[in-house]
Each structure stands twice: as C-alpha cells, then as structure tokens.
Amino acid sequence: MTINLEVPAKFKLLVDQAHQVALGVFRPISRRYDLAEHEYPKELDMLAALVDGMNDSGEQGTGARGVRRSNDNDTDGVRNGGNLSTVLSVMEACWGDVALVLAMPRQGLGNAAIASVADDEQLARFDRVWASMAITEPGAGSDSAAIRTTAVRDGDDYILNGEKIFVTAGARSNAVVVWATLDPSKGRAAIKSFVVEKGTPGFTVERLEHKLGIRASDTATLRFADCRVPAANLLGSPEVDEGFAGVMQTFDNTRPLVAAMALGVAKAAIDETRDVLRGAGVAVDYDRPASRQHAAAAALLAMEADWEAAYLTTLEAAWMADNGQPNSLQASMAKAKAGRMATEVTLRCVELTGGYAESSLLEKWARDAKILDIFEGTQQIQQLIVARRLLGKSSAELK
Ligand SMILES: Cc1cc2nc3c(=O)[nH]c(=O)nc-3n(C[C@H](O)[C@H](O)[C@H](O)COP(=O)(O)OP(=O)(O)OC[C@H]3O[C@@H](n4cnc5c(N)ncnc54)[C@H](O)[C@@H]3O)c2cc1C
Fold first, then answer.
1. What would the mean pLDDT of 349-363 be, rounded to a whole number?
2. DSSP result, 117-160
C-alpha cells in the first residue's frame, strides 16, 4: 500500500493556528524566559485554556491527549487522526519555541502516558491534571529496568519510596506519572506506573536544574518517602509479568512527538538561515544542482533534504499509530533521525550565519535542540531499538 504523506487538508486550520501561536506568542517571549530561567511563563495560561477548549469541542485530541489510540483498528489504512494532528501542531509550535511548548500546562509527557494507557475511569478522573513523567533516577537512565523506586501494596494503597531526577515540568505540574517497581528482583516485569498528585503526603520537589537549553521548562528532582497512593491510580495491569509492554507502548506514541519538536526547532533554524543568506546576497536556487551554487546555498539544500527525511519518517510513525499499526521501529527511527538532524542542523546554522550571540535566536535553538536527542531515549538507545527490531533480537540478546 502506498502512503500519501501530504498534510491532510482537515489539519490545515490547526497547523495555521499553531503557527500563529508560535509567531505571535512564543517568539516574542522566547529570549525573555530563556534568560529568566525558572520564572513561570504566565502567558501560557491563556493558551492552555484554549487547547483545553479545543479538546472539549473537537473530535480529534489536541496536544498530549491526541496520542490516545482508537480502539477501532479497522481503518483500511486511511485514518489521519490524533497522533498525526498532534505531531503536526507540536512541530509548528516548536518552530516558535520548544521550551515553551514543554512548559505548556496540561501538556506534559505524563498527560500523554495517561492518554495512552489509562482506563476510561482514570481518563475521566485525570481529565484536567497537568502530569509530568518521572522515570529517570540517579542510578537508572537509559536502562529503565534498573529503577529502584519501590511500590508496596498496603490495603487499598501502594506506598512509594524513591528519588526521581530530571523530571520535565516536575515542579509546575500538579501530578506526576511515576515508574516504580513492585519487586526489584523481577526487572521489567514488575515495573508499574502510578499517578501521584501534588499535595500527597511524602511527595516533595527537592530542587530544580540549571540547564544548557530549554530553560523555560523546569526540570526537577522529586522525592517519595512513604508516599501513600490509591491503588486506583496504577495505570494498566497490577499483576507482575503483565503490562510492561503497555507502559513501553507510551513511547511509541510520544517518540514521534519528540521527533516533531526536533523538526520544529530545526525548521526555525533553517528558515532563519535562509533569510540571513538572502540578506547577504546568497539566494538558494531550487532548480539548479547544489554543486553549482554558492557553498552556503549548497549547505542549506543539504540541511533541507536531511530535514525532509526526518519529517517523512515522523509522519509515517504517527500515521501508523493512528491506523492501529505497531510502530515501535518507526517511532525509534523517527526519534533517532530527527534528534540527530536537529542537533546537527541548528549548530550548522549558527556556523553559517555567525548567529552565536544573544542577538540571534539561532544560538538558543542550538542549545534547545540537544535535549531532543537525549530524553525519551537517547540517540544510541533508539539505534539499539532499531537494530533489535531489524535483526529480530530481544533486549537480552542485544544490549
Ligand atoms: C532537560 C532534561 C529533561 C528530562 N526530562 C525527563 C522527564 O521528564 N522524565 C524522565 O523520566 N527523564 C527525563 N530526563 C532524563 C533523560 O530521559 C535521561 O537523561 C536519558 O534517558 C539518558 O539517561 P542518563 O542521563 O542516565 O544517561 P545514561 O543512561 O547514563 O547514558 C549515558 C550515555 O551512554 C549511552 N548509553 C547508555 N546505554 C547504552 C547502550 N546500551 N548502548 C550504547 N550506548 C548507551 C547513552 O546513549 C548516553 O549517551 C530528562 C533529562 C534532561 C537532561
């Protein structure tokens, strides 16, 4: 079957709106909140309310909620749904500012996890939360099976103990989806995710990081000390040996979103560079071979081709999610390709334009891009997943 990867006409309005937000809201405050690290961008409140309204009225999910897969897989391969529209709008918004998108209330990665794996009762109960996602620990980054935060059943509750680091929106969100193990000796099989709301006794925000990039987004260390969480807040099956595949599936939906963020910031850099080159008298001619153009124009064409490859891979991964097709391979390919592309392209744009100073957003975009090649699985981890899938090897066989 062939796949038509043109942007569906029905998403045009959404993409246009995201572009207006990027241009009119994000860009003007971009530098300010990069400099004022840890200050909450209050301008986001109004936007978040707008997205809530669209979610309440629209047939497709918008934002983090858009990643919920339909139960109806009988699509004949023609559904352009929430995953695709979310990828397109996130990309466009990140053309404005990726850090501000990560700081959007109620659009956390925890919201995407809830949308992906919560049952209908939980979905309704957590409808209005802003949820961050806490997997990483001081001793467990790429190897998420090594987490040591524990959850022990006690009556109708679980009691959580442990420390989580690098939690995006960990301080500002009002809930967090925490990965904890029911039995550390059982590895992946015993890992479950729990929604823990702020204000739950025993749950504290310890500190915030000062970072290279995405400074408008808070990154927190969280502690859970005898933190009692209702058993009804466990997402997925409570049985050991069941459900890890389920929590991992969240990544199949969220990795294309991170790829979309990378596409957005890279496109911003390419567009800006094209303008700077034009201003310097270097025009890019799309009808002549790159080899016969100015070296800077040839470099721009090469970056655009690299961007396009990442874009198509990302659309494919999201489209497959909308059509109920297993997309782990494509989601990891998209994340690896787009993360690497954005890191390289944004730095190359700084190089081509001399946009190294605060007077240019290019230096900020080069800093912001790096995290997109790290969180939700690093470049190396995505390549490992791709290799396992292509070679038919398990995680025990290829590490
Ligand atoms: C700004 C920021 C925001 C973040 N937000 C979140 C969040 O919201 N929630 C959350 O849970 N986490 C978050 N993280 C954590 C992030 O997901 C981890 O940093 C990431 O998974 C890598 O883990 P690590 O830093 O422990 O590196 P490590 O796992 O120690 O890896 C170090 C290096 O070794 C490489 N490596 C590791 N294993 C292998 C292997 N098997 N083969 C080849 N190479 C390997 C890695 O690719 C990396 O280059 C965030 C991190 C940052 C910096």
1. 95
2. H--HHHHHHTTT--EEEE--BTTBSS-GGG---EEEEETTEEEE
